[in-house]
Design goal:
Radius of gyration: 20 Å
CATH topology of the largest domain: Rossmann fold
Number of domains: 2
Shape: globular
Structural class: alpha/beta
Distance between the termini: 35 Å
Number of helices: 12
Strand content: 15-25%
CATH superfamily of the largest domain: Translation initiation factor eif-2b, domain 2
CATH class of the largest domain: Alpha Beta
Number of strands: 16
CATH architecture of the largest domain: 3-Layer(aba) Sandwich
Largest sheet: 7 strands, mixed
Bound molecules: 5-S-methyl-1-O-phosphono-5-thio-D-ribulose
């Protein structure tokens, strides 16, 4: 069976509700939440029930469609100003992944040229569906480009989950593994468990194992030793926001992997849909880094593992400086170095 047949979609739009795969319950339970209001959408995003930059964007876009279907308002300008309020509300659900803002702005922009409220509602829905469909093609292309950097038999390391469930399908950093499977290649994957909320073990290990891909789980502090001793040919990661100079925000721990890869002479690749490229943000120091509740560090599965009253620092992301990135793999091609010149060119060419 291919990933297409085994695919568990993270978000499904049903007009008056969304079905959202509750990623907090994986790998034990495959449960779809019935999400019926924009407040519920906000909650599922902020509590990581749906997560991963592209999936967050898709969900928020559908959130606006869901909301607009319930609005009883005939005046277009009042409708558009309420739409702006809802856009701002969803924008406050998480700060780092730029796909969130990219998707809701795209949906809100589609409504601006409407001639009536009904027309605006149709445009909102169709734009949201479009974003989801586009993402599938984007991920497949990223996977194909990423595969061109690998060879049959290679071992590769990844962190967090930049997989099918973090996108519309295939994933970004995990796309080459799903496509390799379709091609009959054997790639082996070393997945960092990704503290504090374990998306590597709960999600990546689950997703790759479900597609019969050779995956080995390690704890995050085993990465350097594993890179050195397991003949790893590349590290490939996803991203939440890539600044104009190529600096890349991704799940906490990514920067450490980049440093280790550099020290050991192993290529470090970022899989980046153009929807995650933020040319307005000049460099990584301008990317807002989300800090999350301390319980994510002091507890595992609700059980306290640290002393009461301990001080906690819990950033969800870090920024890998562009100089540590061997290549950025987009759906429109692979960029190696000179990101400040090449990233804007690529985005401009594919507007
Ligand atoms: O906090 P999360 O789980 O939303 O963080 C996810 C990541 O860091 C992913 O690597 C990134 O969003 C890319 S998903 C294709």
């Amino acid at each position: 069976m291919t990933v297409a047949e085994k695919w568990v979609p993270s978000v499904r739009y049903r007009g008056d509700h969304l079905l959202i795969l509750d990623q907090q319950q994986l790998p034990h339970h495959t449960v779809y939440l019935n999400v019926t209001s924009i407040g519920h959408v906000w909650d599922t995003i902020s509590k990581l029930k749906v997560r991963g930059a592209p999936a967050i964007g898709i969900t928020a876009a559908f959130g606006l469609a869901l909301w607009s279907n319930t609005v009883k308002e005939d005046d277009l300008s009042i409708f558009l100003s309420k739409l702006k309020e809802q856009r701002d509300y969803l924008a406050s659900s998480r700060p780092t992944a730029v796909n969130l803002f990219w998707a809701i702005d795209r949906v809100a922009a589609a409504a601006q040229s409407a001639t009536s409220v009904d027309d605006a509602k149709k445009r909102i829905e169709s734009e949201a569906l479009h974003i989801q469909e586009e993402d599938e093609n984007t991920c497949r292309k990223i996977g194909e480009y990423a595969l061109s950097l690998l060879q049959d038999g290679d071992a590769v390391m990844t962190i967090c989950n930049a997989g099918a469930i973090a996108t519309s399908k295939y994933g970004t950093a995990l796309a080459p593994f799903h496509l390799a499977k379709e091609k009959g290649w054997t790639l082996s994957v070393y997945a960092n468990e990704t503290r504090p909320v374990l998306q590597g073990s709960r999600l990546t290990a689950w997703e790759l194992q479900a597609n019969d891909i050779d995956v080995t789980l390690i704890t995050d502090n085993m990465a350097a030793h594993t890179l050195k001793t397991k003949n790893i040919k590349a590290v490939i990661v996803g991203c939440d926001r890539v600044a104009a100079n190529g600096d890349t925000a991704n799940k906490i721990g990514t920067f450490g992997l980049a440093l280790q890869a550099r020290a050991l002479g192993i290529p470090f690749y970022v899989a980046c849909p153009l929807s995650t490229l933020d040319l307005v943000t000049a460099s990584g120091s301008d990317i807002p880094i989300e800090e999350r509740p301390e319980e994510e560090v002091t507890h595992i599965n609700g059980v306290r593992i640290a002393p009461e009253g301990i001080k906690v620092f819990n950033p969800a992301f870090d920024v890998t400086p562009a100089e540590y990135i061997s290549a950025i793999i987009t759906e429109k091609g692979i960029i190696k170095g000179n990101y400040t010149n090449e990233l804007p060119k690529l985005k401009e060419e594919h507007k």
